[in-house]
Design a protein that fits this description.
alpha+beta; 91 residues; globular; 3-stranded antiparallel β-sheet
């Protein structure tokens, strides 16, 4: 993903952040699925096989308030892509 997508999208202005949990506990619940959030009101869950292959995307129809908190935590605990790559976090 880094080379295929992020390196091109970040310089174009997309806010891509990296939450690296390699050497620390994940601040988000282990059961949390990858998700997209649109306008702080619509959540789409992304479902994957164990090998990382995406199966599908699913519109979440419940209360989005937990996802607002997940987003807050993820942003607070992550770094911008360019800082991650150029700041020595990733070689």
């Amino acid at each position: 993903e880094f080379d295929r997508y992020y390196r091109h999208q970040a310089p174009a202005g997309e806010d891509i952040r990296i939450l690296d949990v390699t050497d620390r506990p994940n601040p988000l619940p282990d059961t949390l699925s990858d998700f997209w959030m649109f306008d702080r009101s619509t959540v789409v869950l992304m479902n994957y096989e164990k090998d990382g292959t995406q199966i599908n995307r699913q519109l979440f129809e419940g209360d989005v308030s937990p996802f607002l908190e997940y987003q807050r935590i993820a942003v607070a605990e992550s770094v911008p892509f360019e800082e991650y790559v150029h700041g020595g976090h990733r070689t």
